[in-house]
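Subject: Sanity check before I submit

Could someone independently write out the structure tokens for this chain? I want to compare against mine line by line before I put it in a report. The sequence has 279 residues.
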Amino acid sequence: MSQKKFKIFLISLLVFGTNISLAQKWEIGGLLGASNYNGELAREIVLKETHLAGGIYMRYNLGKYFSVKPALNVGTISGNDKNFKENKNRNLSFRSNITELSVNMEFNFRPFGSQVRTENFTPYLQLGIAGFRFNPKTKYNGDIFELHNLHTEGQTNKEMYKLYQIAIPFGIGFKWEMSENMIFGYEFVYRKTFTDYLDDVSKRYPDLTEQKKKFGTVSAALSDRSVEVEGVTSPLSTTDDMRGDPALKDWYMFSMFSFTYRFTPIICWPKKPPVLWDY
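---
Independent answer below. Compare away.
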């Protein structure tokens, strides 16, 4: 074999091997399941407040045990005081879409991946960081209102909560390799947030008279909705009564099935090996 052909052979082998390695490390997939929330309007999970959720992601396998997974997820959360007897007179409710971008680390309890031939199933842990957008809304007199714009707790513009927030996703899941290219899974992942306003409820009732002057009739009406309860003739709150609990931050969660495609190279061997050397 000439020196030139030997170099070509080594370069081809390196490129070929690298392409195989990289292809086997990348996966792409979709998620479909449900979203829910925990906060002032739901101190425990309420099944009837569960909504459809979905997402897409890519996974890069660092090895048999660790993976990095960037993802885009969307879902809906909601809560209603009518679900809890002790809160029915407060009578607050909300609904919000959630759009989330996250980067997560996965730890497999068992060796798993394209190079593993002894295992086709593993549970895993997931931990990451996420940025998300929310926007709580409610229905009043047949119309939908964005609560953020109404300053329902008398906040000034500087005190208003931000609709873009950070969260820490963490949870568990499992993966099952159905074939060389297809993986089926399920995961349940909580999101710890650093805001208490997913539901627009956190601190104290404002002075309703001042609220009406500053922010309008609708704002005052949605700050204290107890008057809408049957048998109640006037708002039940007084200024600075507790409306929520600022010491407890809100949470949201996704429970979803995953469907993953693993990129693997398609190798087409020639009928005859190429001649790489001269006799």
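---
OP: Matches mine. For the report I'm noting this point. Residues 3-25 form the longest helix (23 residues).
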